[in-house]
Amino acid sequence: MKMDNKETTEPLHEGIIEQFTAMQENIDNSSPISEISLNAEKILKHLRDNDISSDVGRALCYSVKCMLDSAQTIVNEDGKSWDNIANKQFSQRAAIVMYFTRNVLQLPHLSGKQLLKQFLRICLSRIIIMCATHDTLMQWTSEYSIKESKDLQLVLCNACTEPSIKHLLTYESPLETPDKDRILPQEMFSQVLKILQPKLTKSTWKKEPICQHVYKWCLIQMMHPHLGQHLDIVLPSALLFTDDYQVPNKIIGIECLCHIIKEVDATELKWHNRAGVIYSAVHSQIYSNKAHLLDVVIPCMLSILGVIEKSPIRDNCVRNVNRYDEILQLLLANMESEQVIVLRRLYLKYVPLFVDKMGVTILRHIKILLRIISSYLEVSDGQEEEGRLATLQLTNKLVQVIGSRLTRHTNVLLKALLRLLYDSCLQDFNESNAVTKEIQNSVVKTIRNLQVCCYDSVNRDLKQVVESEVKSIPQFVECVNQIVCT
């Protein structure tokens, strides 16, 4: 009987290994999806119904590895856009491989520590890359592939007893754990980068849009303090994307640089002038007139300035002119002459952040700031008056930060505010009463803040306004009287 069992087992093992090979070839040759799916179900049924020997286990591990590699193969090797048919085939093929991998991870026979350890050491990095590829809606994904990616991530984390992919990438087993007892491989992020690196060189990355996406996805998972030890590997790719001529690639590069700046110690960034290199890369993008690019460039610039420059608001340091002033001067010059509404709103969004960072040193730029405030308050940018409201917020910020040092400039500021308050009291100012009321309340609040800092000069000017010939607009006089009486 033992002899009979041995004779029947060996052909079974040979048969399943042949099925592994057949499925792998079908994926390599882009065979019909139905054929690949049928092969997958046959193999899974066999694995569920029979014990897995060491030979079959080894063959299974390397087959899954090869299937993952084949399903990850880039369709557009010439770097051109994909057509809908290629997209569909790619996502379907990947979904089947993820379905197969997920079911392999759920096999009862794989629960044994040795086989699971072997499987993860061979396949884990490629599984993570596959999950990252289909994690979100992209041109090469489908609803089905995204669902399979989410399901595979859940099963993988359960099998590894880790809460998320982020923890898998940064996994470090205790030093006292013997190697034979370690199920998860160490330095998984390094293994993923090792696979991605050859495809992210200057000559290849344009042909590998999936690798660019996977690089960013995995990078975003890495947090402090784990990211710093990989800085030399991750930084070049981010700089390469930033330097590209296509805006979407620039945005990806800047977003990656932002994450690196945030999650790596400032001291590490300063080593070997890495921070200086990042600053130069970001600085070259600040001259763009593309709103969606500037929307990521300006906050990234503020982040890297916080690394390479001493904070201007520190009391124990000399407040010399520095790169905060250089960048703000450039933004204000663009802002003053800007006529595109989207860009005007964008500058108004970020200039208050410079005011916060620079403190009283913002006084170096007060003249151009007052010109901008006066100009922006004069012109409506739409029914919602987003521009004027944002300008009033900037004015409030200036008043709070500079305080009594603003005394010399109260006339200019007060004139612009009162003009807007007067206009808002006219019948044809805005169709929306709610917007008009919001503008009036914001102006009154700003004047009151200015009054706190420069009481005598502001009150004197307000009384002159009340006594002048503006009584034909009772609402305006009432607003001014409220401010004077408080």
Top keywords for this entry?
single chain; mainly alpha; 486 residues; elongated
Polypeptide structure, described:
This protein is an all-alpha fold. It contains 22 helices and no strands. The chain has helices at residues 2-28, 33-49, 54-71, 84-105, 113-133, 143-160, 165-169, 188-196, 209-221, 231-242, 247-263, 266-270, 274-283, 291-308, 323-337, 341-358, 366-378, 386-402, 410-424, 433-453, 455-467, 474-485. α5 crosses α8 and α14 packs parallel to α16. The longest helix is centred in the N-terminal third of the chain and has 27 residues, at 2-28. The termini are far apart.
Compact overview of the structure:
The protein is mainly alpha-helical. It has 22 helices and no strands.
Furnish the topology, listing elements before pairings:
Blueprint: H1 2-28, H2 33-49, H3 54-71, H4 84-105, H5 113-133, H6 143-160, H7 165-169, H8 188-196, H9 209-221, H10 231-242, H11 247-263, H12 266-270, H13 274-283, H14 291-308, H15 323-337, H16 341-358, H17 366-378, H18 386-402, H19 410-424, H20 433-453, H21 455-467, H22 474-485
Helix pairs in contact: 1-2, 1-3, 2-4, 3-4, 3-5, 4-5, 4-6, 5-6, 5-8, 5-9, 8-9, 10-11, 11-14, 13-14, 14-16, 15-16, 15-17, 16-18, 17-18, 17-19, 18-20, 19-20, 20-21, 21-22
